[in-house]
Amino acid sequence: MKPSAHNSIHLALFSLLATVCSSCTAPSSADATNNLAYKEYVAGHQLNSAGKFKEAIPHLDKAIAADPTLADAYISRGFSYGKLGPNNSEMLEHSLSDYAKAIALTPEEPHGYNNRGFTLLKLNKIDQAIADFDFALKLEPDAAYLFGNRGEAYLRKGELDKAISDATRAIELNPEDADPFATRGDAWLLQKNYTKAIKDYDSAIELNPTPADCFHDIEAIKTKREEAKKAL
Questions:
Q1: Using 50, 70 and 90 to split pLDDT, how confident is the model at 211?
Q2: Global pTM?
Q3: 185: which residues sit within 8 A by CB, 6+ positions away?
Q4: Which of 22, 30, 34, 147 could disulfide-pair with 11, CB 3.0 to 4.6 Å?
């Protein structure tokens, strides 16, 4: 699951969602050479972390104006646009544009690809999302959130065995993330393997997912668990 303004599954905001369910990486010392850009970037990043996405954008605009090579500022602003318009294609296109700029500036960093893939999933551009997750995994091959996000993409594409494989790898790498359990549970449910689905849903609920950028809402997980129980 899951969109990084930098995180996980998700989207990445801690380096700047995912968790799947995230994510911006901490700026390097080189980023700090432009004091104004760095100051505005930090202000925007902190506002994003506080859920004040609209307020973050002017600071990130100033950071980019001061230093157009500051990739993390594009990632943070892309995250802001994505959060402001989860069902607004125009906002999501702004988000994609910022992630593309970040990727062009730092093509060796996985976060831009992950976040762009997360946004592409929102636009139902599943094959393009998978391609971004594939590339990010080449750069960060042991990233649990990337396996979780790609697993969710495969689930939405209907490639259930691949979804299960990726979710399982994500769980192996980070057993504290609820999203891959829910993704795998959904795949088991669609395969009518209700016992395994219930077990994964139980694990997801026990982990009590709360991050805003998780793919799976806990109430939805509970509903699907009851559906699986009734099907037994």
A1: low
A2: 0.85
A3: 196, 197, 198, 199, 200, 201, 204, 221, 224, 225, 228
A4: 22
